[in-house]
Amino acid sequence: MTRIAVLGAGKIGEALLAGLLAAGRPASDLAFSERHPERSAELTERLGVASAGVEEAAAGADVVVVAVKPQDIAPVLAELKGALRPGTLVISLCAGLPTALFEGGLPDGTPVVRVMPNTPMLVGEAMSAVSGGAHATAEHLQVAQDMLAAVGRVVSVPEAQQDAVTALSGSGPAYFFYLVEAMIDAGILLGLPRAVAADLIVQSAYGAAVMLRESGDHPVLLREAVTSPAGTTIAAIRELERHGVRAALIDAIEAARDRSVELGRTVQQR
């Protein structure tokens, strides 16, 4: 059995561990490292997965998943360099960090796969994109895809597209939460109790997402099906267009892409 070590047990690291366990992976095949002792003890008690230091966890693993904050990567790479066994696959969940950064800080020939997941991993509905580094084979990519399939859907993209993926789906849930927050506030403004407004919008968002995924129809067609001539929906759409909501959203996603690029460059220059 492949042994997996997750370095960094924040929300994403914990979600991955929980998803692997739910998919049938035995706890004995998993390990994690976490710098906060209280957090380590809590996760071990709750998930039954052993915690260890970075070097110990990595030394016993066939796959090492790095799920730390990008700004914390330097000390982790320093510890990993002397602990990795030849051929160990390293999977990075660090936003903005290119595979070349890992390859430059780890033993020569280390296979690295870059992944951009998102927070719906916490409920088993992640959207993850994978890209292979210079030494990653199709088999390495398949290992990463199989692992991430336990917590959602997976696509493979060229690494040059990863900053765009980060902006679109990595940060994407926040855009939906922001929109839902605004719609709930609108419901309150119109006289609805907050709890009722929240129920109405959350279920509408869930139903719309299911329609998008299950119908296969273009979103324009689905929107037009709701938009009657001279009706309420077209009046609302006109206001959204008048306020430039579409253009603002495109600009926002472009800004997120630019920040992802900047983050990678900043870490590499340290």
From TrEMBL:
Binding site for NADP(+): 67-70
Alphabetically ordered keywords of this record: Amino-acid biosynthesis, Cytoplasm, NADP, Oxidoreductase, Proline biosynthesis
Recorded GO MF terms: pyrroline-5-carboxylate reductase activity
GO biological process: L-proline biosynthetic process
Residue span, Pyrroline-5-carboxylate reductase catalytic N-terminal domain: 3-96
UniProt cross-references to Pfam families, sorted A to Z: F420_oxidored (PF03807), P5CR_dimer (PF14748)
Main localization category: cytoplasm
Keyword Amino-acid biosynthesis: yes
NCBIfam families linked to this entry: proC
Name assigned to this protein: Pyrroline-5-carboxylate reductase
